[in-house]
Fold this protein.
Amino acid sequence: MAAPALDVAALRRRFPALARPLAFLDGPGGTQVPDTVIEAVAGYLAESNANLGGPFATSRESDLVVSRARIAAAAFLGCSPDEVGFGPNMTTLNFALSRAAGRELAPGDEIVATRLDHDANVAPWLELARDRDLVVRLVELTGDCRLDLADLEHKLSGRTRIVAFPWASNAVGTVTDVRRVADLAHEAGALAWVDAVHFAPHGPIDVRAAGADVLLCSPYKFFGPHLGLFYGRREVLERWRPYKVRPADDEPIGHRFETGTQPHEALAGFAAAVEYVRSVGWDAIRAHERELSRRFLDGLPARYRLHGPAGPDGRTPTFALTHPTRSAWEVAKALGERGIAVWPGNYYALEVMRRLGLEDGAVRVGFVHYNTAEEVERVLVELDDLAAPGGAA
Ligand SMILES: Cc1ncc(COP(=O)(O)O)c(C=O)c1O
């Protein structure tokens, strides 16, 4: 059945930032936010700003904002509201959770991470390994930047305790078979630890169907405010001893892993972002993004080298490219001057870039559902111009 068509023009009117002439093809670095998110953030600060648990109106309202954010997170991730927690961003949460997990690891235990990951799902394990004498192994990639599952199987052992991997690559857009990797992790007796930051704006997440034990994402990548979010399977969160201050509540269970006062205004905005995504619908988002991908791939000038999956399948609409002669920085700067926002560099996907031998990284063109066919055409025209013999870059 055909997915409902997106009325992109109508959606875009809800994003004040999109009124400027800049083409926002920087979604993998952070997305713009719709009116309801902005209103929720501002509304909280104007009307309910307080700390939690107090015997007065604004504090009670703040308690409600936090409970609603947990319910929204549960709906977004397919878990129970007490299995989630918030923090400043994914990286901070991952350092914190990995340290809690590390308390049950013994010297010589092994962690398998991947070369497809953003460093936020690699460095915490390297640091933990350093502190606790663990071994970290990195899963290799195939030629088109997919996870090499044979290599993963090879790297699993009786000592593997955690398999950390991305749902999708923020550099080359590869989507992984999360369930398959989680099953392999579980067969080895390890936890499946999923970085869903890049995938979250592009498709539905169901932590139970995915088999995730831990999953992290960042609402600022899916039309919400700057914030990090995690899911932890109840049995796992109950088992771990958190790094927490003694007076902080032990319930709900996810809260034990949140430290200090949360950005309540961001939690208010987060719930609005989840409602926004629900109202647009994943089928429509995916169909539109696929069409943008197809258009981009069909029109990409042959002089550019595309890294990662060659077709629109098994990927997000995120494309890493190299110009025949110009550095990623030069190309992105030239596009920026022509009113198109894209990222140069490695976007912290260090191992992917190493594997591709791209010391300066690549140009990343990333679409989300609020981008238009016209924007795809616009970036293709400019890329073509910048790569034309004697071109202007
Ligand atoms: C795949 C992926 N993982 C992790 C992160 C880190 O997220 P945060 O900025 O919330 O720490 C990013 C940010 O770009 C990302 O793209």
